[in-house]
Amino acid sequence: MMSVPPSWFMALGALLFAIGAAGVLIRRNVIVMLMAIELMLNAVNLTFIALSRSLGSIDGQVIVLFVITVAAAEAATGLAIIIAAFRNRETVNADELNLMRW
Amino acid sequence: MPLWLFVFLAALAVLAALGVVLQRNPVHCLMALVVVLLDLAVMFIGLGAVTVGFLQAIVYVGAIMVLFLFVIWLLNLQTEERRVAGSIGLRFFGAVGAAALVAELCVFVVKAPSTAGLSHVPPTFGSIGAIAEALFTDYLIAFEATSLLLLVAVIGAVALARRATASRTRSPVPVSPAVHEQIGARQ
């Protein structure tokens, strides 16, 4: 049944991670940058799951659960910061959010 | 997972990931991200991680993505960000850096010692019981720490996003138009 080697999944994870990293570097909209970070987290999750299946160990899946939890915490806090910044500056452009005050 | 399914899912994931990065409307980016997440959930289930795959669909797509969507609506981000001068070089270096990263990671994946195919796992592999057994024995301290992290994140999110009430001092320092002009000139 399983005919796809695990290294293919890891290569796909690497590709998705690189796309997410490019998104963080290219985009200036902070919300889209957060989405790209979620993309990178999921690429790493795919690697964890593939290695968990390949090694026959459950540890990788447990760590993915922790990653999902931390991603939820990170998204909630990050979006709250974005809302607070938008309320003060009326922008979500990372190039314009360059002052600690006002 | 059969080969054709992997090829289909991988192509869909890469296309949707490019959609996240390249589309200009934040809501469209979010929908592309939802496609990636569901695609990866199917892949997890195909790899035997059934519980994690379902949790991915429920928690990520059902909760986190909806949170993103609400924030986009709340901020009313219909208009697209305008292109900032000087970001051409930024975009170029970003693309070059990402290409270097994917080349590096692929070299690593190819050169990594092959983990000798896929070991045969028991049918209960990835079930709720198997995950719970690991979660509540070996990873108990990490699990409790995660609950503390979620509590802190909730308090932090509420404290950050809260609108200052009238009885308190207004949270943003009132800014006079002159200061706005000064900021504009400084930029």
What is the CA–CA distance across the termini of chain A?
59 Å
Question: Which two chains share the most extensive interface?
Answer: A-B, 79 and 92 residues
Instruction: Figure out the total of helices of chain B.
Output: 7
Beta percentage of chain B is: under 5%
Rg for CA atoms of chain A: 17 Å
Helix content of chain B: over 70%
Could you say what the CATH architecture of the domain at 1-80 in chain B is? Up-down Bundle
Count of individual beta strands of chain A: 0
Using the coordinates shown, work out and report the CATH topology of the domain at 30-91 in chain A: Helix Hairpins
Q: Overall pLDDT of chain A, averaged?
A: 87
Low-confidence stretches of chain B are: none
The residue-averaged pLDDT of chain B reads 81
CATH topology descriptor of the domain at 1-80 in chain B: Four Helix Bundle (Hemerythrin (Met), subunit A)
Q: Return the string of H and E elements of chain A.
A: HHH
- In the CATH scheme, the class of the domain at 30-91 in chain A would be Mainly Alpha
Number of strands of chain B: 0
Unreliable sequence segments of chain A: none
For the largest beta-sheet of chain B, the strand count, sense and barrel status come to:
none
